[in-house]
Protein: Antitoxin
Amino acid sequence: MITVAISEFRSDLLTYLKSAQAGNRFQVTSKGVPLATITPPPNHNNAARVRLDKLAETAVIRDVLSPT
Structure:
């Protein structure tokens, strides 16, 4: 995780936020004391894909017109 001083973070905020969006994590400090951790947003699409893949593993496909 990258550590960045609050003054540097504030002066280049957009760059750090775009970097976080790309997957990087940052710890923002003031005089060496951690203030916040900036993390990428959760990827809900990936979580949904994992759930669908697990569901697909247990799916049973049958003929609905002639079920015998």
